[in-house]
Protein: GTP-binding protein
Amino acid sequence: MKKIPEVAIVGRVNTGKSTLFNRIIKKPLSIVDARPGLTRDRVKKPVEWENFTFFLTDTGGLYPPEDDLIWEKVREKIKETVENADLIILLVDASQGVTPFDEEIAEWLRSKNKDVILVANKIDKKDQDVLSFYKLGLGEPLGISAV
Structure:
């Protein structure tokens, strides 16, 4: 039996991962709020996209490492999801530009030797620059507005 591919959406907190997830699955399944760090558990759903089926997983946001048991558990679940994924969508916040933590996440994902699509969310202005995200070393950034 053929394995159904797994796609994971990962990134810092408050980059719009749950909003993108809800748009792709066409249902408001993941909770969305302006407060950062609301999503802590993974949400996984099958998706049919142009006659192609895959599982899509929304993950909690990555925080820089700190001594917090809850966020350590969130990081563990994200790491597990990345290990099992066939494709990773790294979602970054174009309105904030490249952050040092984006660079750390990109370095970690490159070390996994997985296929990664770099998506710059929150492109609300026509002239907003996504080219700076090339420095993450993950190829051409795709600019979107998930809302």
In short: Strands lie at 6-10, 43-49, 52-58, 87-93, 115-121, 142-143.
